[in-house]
Amino acid sequence: MKDAELMALAEAARERAYAPYSRFCVGAALLTKGGKVYLGCNIENAAYTPTNCAERTAFFKAVSEGERDFTAIAIVGGKAGDPPSFCAPCGVCRQVMAEFCGEDFKVLLGNSSRFTAFSLSALFPYSFTKKDL
Ligand code: THU
């Protein structure tokens, strides 16, 4: 799977965002080591705090289906109606990535025509993980 293809899948996932409160729509496409892709979108809630980010939607779908090994995630965001663009993952989502992924896990940010690849260690240095327990 090419990086640009994974970004395009994240763009498609963003179309399903449920974001009536923030009007900020996010999509994610999570690639497993076996080559499967799990999609996620943000899912907001009238009570606000139950809101789930796109990245965690993708991770929780995958892990609940038995996946544990991941190579990359593509993330796109932007205001509803705007074209997909750069959206940095929130701290909680970075923590979830660190639970299942190593330092070399690739995080693709931007959109399908222009994006940058970051390592998880670059985005989330000095993290607290199972190695600390
Ligand atoms: N959001 C995500 O889905 N992923 C992120 O990493 C950043 C924020 C969502 C949560 C909320 O529905 C909206 O974007 C505005 O914060």
Question: What's the structural blueprint in terms of helices and strands?
Answer:
Elements: H1 3-14, E1 27-32, E2 37-41, H2 54-64, E3 70-76, H3 91-100, E4 106-111, E5 114-119, H4 120-123
Parallel strand pairs: 3-4
Antiparallel strand pairs: 1-2, 1-3, 4-5
The structure holds tetrahydrodeoxyuridine.
Question: What this model shows, in words?
Answer:
With 133 residues, the chain is an alpha+beta fold. The chain is built from 4 helices and 5 strands, in the order H-E-E-H-E-H-E-E-H. It has helices spanning 3-14, 54-64, 91-100, 120-123, and strands spanning 27-32, 37-41, 70-76, 106-111, 114-119. A 5-stranded mixed β-sheet has the order 2-1-3-4-5. The mean pLDDT is 98. It binds tetrahydrodeoxyuridine. Residues 19, 22, 24, 26, 42, 44, 51, 53-55, 89-90, 93 line the site of tetrahydrodeoxyuridine.
Shape: globular
> Fraction of residues in helices?
25-40%
Write down how many β-strands occur, each being a DSSP E stretch of 2 or more residues.
5
Strand arrangement across the biggest beta sheet: 2-1-3-4-5
Largest beta-sheet characterization: 5 strands, mixed
Structural class, by secondary structure, is alpha+beta
Low-confidence stretches: none
Rg calc: 14 Å
Strand coverage percent:
15-25%
Question: What's the pLDDT, averaged over the residues?
Answer: 98
Distinct ligands:
tetrahydrodeoxyuridine
Number of helices: 4
Order of helix and strand elements from N to C terminus: HEEHEHEEH
- Distance between the amino and carboxyl termini: 35 Å
